[in-house]
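Predict structure. Chain length: 310.
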Amino acid sequence: MRHRVFAAVQIGLSLVLLAVVVWRHLPSQLGAELVGANYAVLLLTLMMVPILVMLRAVRWHVLARTRDPHIPMALSFHSYMAGLALAVITPFSAGELARGAFAAPSDRAGFVGLTFLDKMLDVTSLMVLVCSGFMVVAPGRLKLAGAGAMLLLFVAIASARSFAGFAATLMPRWRFVGALMRGVEAGRAVPTGTLLGCFVVAVGNFALLYFHLFLIMYAFAPEIDWRAAGLFPMVTFISRAVPSIAGLGVREFTASAIFAEVEYNISSTGAVVATFLQFVGANVLPAGAWLLVSGGFRRFFAAAREGGGD
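Prediction complete.
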């Protein structure tokens, strides 16, 4: 019952915040931004989407091979896309845990641990970029705070296992702590070089994602200041930290609030449209294409039947 209530709260929050954004900016203003966009640049950003998706899928494949050295790239790709398809419609993107059911139905628990590890790499690389972004936009000596936060972050990474064990002692029933422990345990089985490589690729994934977002914003505001990119990681962090459906509503509300307070030559309305378009282009469209073109629905039904037979 509690899970249903929590899910309903997240759905409600997404819808309310999205409604607030539309009310603040008016459909006419949002439409005007779209009409005045540079469609050649938007087309270029659309062509980048397969690269964004494949980089994430390849990283997942590298991790999956540490659990099953014989897993084919095609199976890793389809398991990643299944997780993505469910992530865009589930609270906290929890649908990504379905990767294991596709990658290895007989070893779901092990692959769930790998999924948690993959998400930990995402969170860690995102925090590195949040600190870096703060150093870009902060004035004067405040930049040192970003450098100090990054140093603390690397200390936390180095002591992740000890921290997870301590958290498990204090909060044994928290799902977050259980996920953290499973991710840490999965990380112990991954060679250090592979783990570091995946971390570097995760940072690169986000850097390319933010370059992609910058190009979308450029399509609406060619005079945009490059320092605006320093705020992108904070928008992502907030959209992932606040309970919602794949960040929907939270992402757009955060972009609206942040870019209304800074002077980086892009309107808050343009920032809202750009962040929404990137979510649709980099997540919804690839997931939809996989479902319709690559037999995603058929694969879902097959995985469900196999799971029902366990």
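Summary: The chain has one domain: 2-24+33-81+107-305.
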